[in-house]
């Protein structure tokens, strides 16, 4: 990985230095012409009669005479810091030795000599008046430039202000290709088309297709947007500029816009190429919002320059803009329009089959044994991003190494998932028997209702061992539904309230342990009523407001009261429903709670022994079954195609053999 600088960019970088040195040279010339002569001059020429007058008045302090008496230097008593006075007569008739000595002695001058003090050499004069001042200015300029550059967070010179910090990657320098990116087939397909356009532009130009101006990668954090951009850099075999949106934000006015101009100037010089702007929401936020709260004019100017540069390319410039963000809702509409970002490529969280592929990629460098089931790991990590899965694999390897194992086992991966989701176990936390019983009844309430409701998430494991901030926890396999119905959401709400209902029903008092459950249920109920229109009194209405800076609710006070009433009604209905289910299955719940107290950790198999097998198949099982069926069908089709090809080959060989025998 390295930054490439060509001759033209070097010449451009030298221009500010040339201007600076020209100014320094001009300053030194002015100093030599006006200041240095008056400061460094140590002698002033005066007529001989002035010397005799000063001598007769007794004002002379020191006198120096050369050997042929053609030059006299003297100083006065009144000011020793004044320059030397010089009396010069090239004819040699100014005075004689005896006459001058008599004059000096009669005037009382004690300090006189026949040796003129040596004047400074021309070389020292040149160094003092030219070299040293220029060198001093150069050193000061370099120091000030570095200090300012450090404050700016930029390069090592003040002359880099307004220069883009984008890194330029050469072919294959990122070391990542599309083969290293698991899942996200649709996103990879869209990006592969852009790469193919760069490799084979004639194929598209023949039918009138033009190069896309830009593509915006949109998705939650950790889904692999930057990794996809690295794969594009590895596959494209063209210069790839990479820069973060925050690098355009500068403390000096105009620097952000200058960096944008410089970035696109470099990109035009190296076209065809790709420019990748990571976290573009740092500079691309919608303009004009929250002006009263102190809008950032500098950021808006940078965005305006970015919009101008993106829309200013010709159709054949060969510069493609890639950008990534997880806040597409805050981006400026002008940035998202066609002609700037022609495509929005959604990079979503991986589904079940895609998680299996992601696990396959991250398990390659890890030594695992035969107990590791990739399908089970994929099922136990719903909602995990690619970064989360990589963290699970690394955490499992760390756990195995901590226990001195040579291979990573299935239990290591399960412990890693538990640690990431729930936090570290706190086996040393002291709890009384009464607290343990209360926690066991609470968690057994969750487990019982989730097992007995059709649409509740299937249970995996329940524990009363404190983990993180929780005193107990239950692990489920959330159903990854594409569409969620009202009945499914109500079942989930009922299962969430099962812990508080069990406390109320079997202990006779409630505790603070259900705070997180109540928070989740309340948010879910408000979402169902205010956003999804799932209320009988407010049907088919959505009060969602996308303006994050607005303090006004999109409904009246009367409607707000109605929403509150509907939320209370919905939550209370599911709470009573949970209490009824637990009352009908009191015996099973008590067995489950006691088993939790005895074992501390129980699994789905233990719950199945108490309540029996669930009569409903989970959606995850249906997906796995469907994927297996489709895979088997595909393998069967490939086998049939191979058999047909082999049979056709045999027929052709037999025909050629028959033709040869007839001849």
Structure description:
The protein has 663 residues and is an alpha/beta fold. 53% of the residues lie in helices and 10% in strands. It is built from 22 helices and 14 strands. The chain has helices at 7-40, 48-56, 97-107, 122-152, 185-199, 201-205, 225-236, 255-269, 297-311, 333-336, 352-362, 374-379, 386-402, 410-422, 433-452, 486-496, 498-507, 515-531, 557-584, 586-599, 604-611, 619-662, and strands spanning 43-45, 60-65, 71-76, 84-88, 111-113, 167-169, 214-218, 240-244, 273-278, 319-325, 343-346, 459-463, 473-476, 601-603. Strands 6-8-9-10-7-11 form a six-stranded mixed beta sheet. A five-stranded mixed beta sheet has the order 1-4-3-2-5, covered by helices on one side. A three-stranded antiparallel beta sheet has the order 13-12-14. Strand 8 (240-244), helix 8 and strand 9 form a beta-alpha-beta unit. Mean pLDDT is 77; it is low at 1-10, 153-159 and 291-295.
First and last CA, distance: 67 Å
- The count of DSSP E runs of length 2 or more, i.e. the number of strands, is 14
Which structural class do you get from the secondary structure elements?
A: alpha/beta
The stretches of 5 or more residues where confidence is low (pLDDT under 50) are 1-10, 153-159, 291-295
Content of β-strand: 5-15%
What's the average pLDDT?
Answer: 77
Biggest sheet strand line-up: 6-8-9-10-7-11
**Oligomeric state:** single chain
Biggest sheet layout = 6 strands, mixed
Count of runs of 4 or more consecutive helical residues: 22
Helix content: 40-55%
Spatial extent as radius of gyration:
43 Å
User: Per the principal axes of the C-alpha atoms, what is the gross shape?
Assistant: elongated
């Amino acid at each position: 990985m390295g930054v490439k600088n060509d001759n033209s960019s070097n010449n451009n970088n030298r221009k500010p230095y040339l201007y600076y040195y020209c100014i320094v040279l001009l300053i030194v010339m002015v100093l030599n012409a006006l200041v240095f002569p008056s400061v460094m001059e140590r002698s002033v020429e005066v007529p001989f009669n002035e010397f005799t007058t000063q001598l007769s008045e007794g004002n002379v302090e020191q006198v120096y005479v050369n050997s042929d008496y053609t030059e006299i230097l003297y100083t006065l008593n009144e000011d020793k810091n004044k320059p030397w006075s010089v009396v010069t007569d090239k004819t040699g008739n100014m005075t004689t030795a005896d006459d001058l000595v008599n004059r000096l002695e009669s005037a009382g001058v004690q300090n006189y000599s026949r040796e003129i003090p040596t004047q400074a050499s021309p070389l020292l004069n040149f160094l003092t008046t030219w070299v040293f001042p220029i060198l001093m200015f150069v050193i000061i300029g370099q120091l000030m430039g570095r200090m300012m550059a450090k404050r700016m967070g930029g390069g090592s010179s003040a002359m880099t202000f307004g220069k883009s910090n984008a890194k330029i990657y050469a072919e294959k320098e990122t070391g990542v290709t599309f083969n290293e990116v698991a899942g996200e087939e649709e996103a990879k397909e869209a990006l592969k088309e852009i790469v193919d356009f760069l490799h084979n532009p004639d194929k598209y130009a023949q039918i009138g297709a033009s190069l896309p101006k830009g593509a915006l990668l949109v998705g939650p954090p950790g889904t692999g947007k930057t990794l996809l951009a690295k794969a594009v850099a590895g596959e494209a075999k063209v210069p790839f500029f990479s820069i973060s949106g925050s690098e355009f934000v500068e403390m000096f006015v105009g620097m952000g816009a200058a960096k944008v101009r410089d970035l696109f100037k470099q990109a035009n010089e190296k076209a065809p190429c790709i420019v990748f702007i990571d976290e573009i929401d740092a500079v691309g936020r919608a303009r004009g919002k929250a002006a009263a709260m102190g809008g950032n004019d500098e950021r808006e100017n940078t965005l305006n320059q970015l919009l101008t540069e993106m829309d200013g390319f010709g159709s054949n410039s060969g510069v493609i803009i890639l950008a990534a963000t997880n806040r597409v809702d805050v981006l400026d509409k002008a940035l998202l329009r066609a002609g700037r970002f022609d495509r929005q490529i959604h990079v979503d969280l991986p589904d079940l089959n895609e998680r299996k592929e992601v696990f396959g990629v991250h398990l390659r460098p890890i030594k695992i044994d035969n107990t590791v089931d990739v399908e089970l790991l994929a099922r136990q990590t719903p909602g995990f991003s690619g970064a989360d899965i990589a963290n699970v694999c690394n955490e499992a390897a760390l756990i195995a190494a901590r226990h001195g194992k040579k291979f990573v086992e299935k239990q290591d991966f399960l412990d890693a998932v538990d640690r990431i989701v729930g936090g570290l176990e706190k086996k040393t936390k002291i709890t009384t028997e009464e607290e343990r019983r209360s926690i066991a009844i609470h968690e057994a309430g969750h487990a019982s209702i989730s097992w007995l409701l059709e649409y509740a998430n299937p249970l995996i494991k329940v524990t009363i061992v404190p983990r993180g901030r929780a005193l107990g926890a239950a692990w489920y396999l959330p159903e990854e539904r594409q569409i969620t119905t009202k009945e499914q959401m109500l079942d989930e709400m009922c299962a969430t309230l099962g812990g508080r209902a069990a406390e109320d029903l079997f202990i006779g008092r409630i505790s603070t342990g259900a705070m997180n459950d109540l928070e989740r249920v309340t948010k879910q109920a408000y979402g169902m009523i205010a956003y999804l229109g799932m209320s009988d009194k407010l049907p088919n209405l959505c009060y969602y407001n996308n303006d994050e800076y607005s303090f006004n609710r999109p409904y009246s006070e009367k409607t707000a009261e109605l929403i509150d009433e509907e939320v209370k009604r919905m939550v209370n209905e599911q709470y009573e429903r949970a209490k009824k289910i637990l009352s009908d299955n009191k015996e099973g719940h008590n067995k489950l709670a006691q088993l939790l107290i005895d074992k501390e950790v129980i699994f789905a198999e233990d719950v199945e022994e108490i309540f029996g097998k669930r009569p409903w198949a989970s959606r995850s099982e249906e997906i796995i079954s469907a994927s297996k069926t489709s895979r088997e069908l595909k393998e069967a089709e490939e086998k049939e195609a191979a058999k047909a090809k082999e049979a056709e080959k045999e027929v052709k060989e037999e025909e050629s053999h028959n033709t040869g025998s007839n001849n």
